[in-house]
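Fill-in record for Glycosyl transferase.
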Amino acid sequence: MRLFIQIPCLNEEKTLPLVMEKMPKSIPGIDEIEVMIIDDGCTDRTVEVAKSLGIKHVVTHTGTMGLARAFRDGVDYALKHGADIVVNTDGDNQYPSDKIGDLVQPILAGKADIVVGDRQTSKIAEFSAFKKMMQHFGSWVVNKAAGTHIPDAASGFRAYSKKALLQLNIVTEFSYCMETIIQAGNKRIAITSVPITTNKKTRESRLFHNIFEHMGKSAGAIIRCFLMFRAHSVFKWSSVISAILALAIFVRYLMFFFAGQGHGHIQSLLVGAMLFIWMVLSLSLLIISELLRIHRRLVEDQLERTKEIEYSPATRKLWADAEQDELPSRHA
């Protein structure tokens, strides 16, 4: 059982040693532990510091590409190098490295394929009351969209089994945190959480400038991911509600019409006609969204099988041979 611990980094030369200080050297049930950083366009000595700390695996971005891309590229590298479990933590030392063993236990026990570290945000002294409330509300929205029960949906301290990673497809450019939970819930991937305590804050977040920007970007990511899986439910309820309202208005008009008072209620007839047209449009969009949903499932099934081949032992040997061939050219 091989565990890869990936650390997305953007100028973390000061905090990376803190992350590595309590990094586990062995975990019961794990045969090999590999640590990797994703250099997301660092302009300081992060890579040099990482190598001095014994980190052998480095994924390099020539420019800053964001947390979601860093996560995706890190997972790709880990799976190409035989990872059975991938843990994601942050380079700012927010999360407790010594709890990685606890984080992977539900996966090792076969109880889950994704484990989220619950920061217990209500107990974080550095969070304002408003931020705590928004964190709770955001997690509630994500859980409603996903059908899950994860208390801290924004936590980036997570463990993923290889099985889960083959099924997940990251499409957002902001943060993968919300998206992977919604995908897991809608794909019936077993997901759970374990309580953790965070370390002392070392710097401000680089993902957003203030909580309102974070709320806006998170809301956009949640809506896009929800529509990717549940757009049909939106159009279904839109057609049902508009049909009921149109029927009620038409019945009301007919009652006045047969009572000889229909001339004074033409406006009701027009509103009913508009609602009927809206119902037809909603039904049309419902059919289209359902066809797209079926098509997406078929494409994702094919993509999962392609990934199984891409990350199989035979293909991993090809990746390893390609890396060996690149080494002489790098040192030339």
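KEY FINDING: Residues 107 and 202 are 30 Å apart (CA to CA).
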